[in-house]
Design a protein that fits this description.
Layout: H1 2-9, E1 17-22, E2 29-34, H2 40-51
Antiparallel strand pairs: 1-2
């Protein structure tokens, strides 16, 4: 977890939400986090960096959009 957080912290970002779960049967760690203020280009750079961490198998990212009301 610290190796994941490091990629955000060194750029001055702190996750606004963090959920992690260790699957007891396999020992697999899943981390789901949200960060406000990242543009898509920087998010892609961070995702690429996370993919370089030893033992990281998958990095998924998505963009949360706010619906505008009329």
């Amino acid at each position: 977890m610290p190796r994941v957080l490091e990629h955000f912290a060194k750029r001055g970002f702190v996750p606004t939400a963090w959920h992690s779960l260790v699957e007891t049967a396999t020992g697999e760690l899943t981390i789901d986090l949200q960060v406000e203020g990242l543009d898509m280009e920087l998010a892609q750079v961070i995702a690429a960096s996370l993919r370089q961490i030893v033992s990281v198998e998958t990095v998924l990212m998505s963009e949360k959009r706010v619906a505008l009301t009329a």
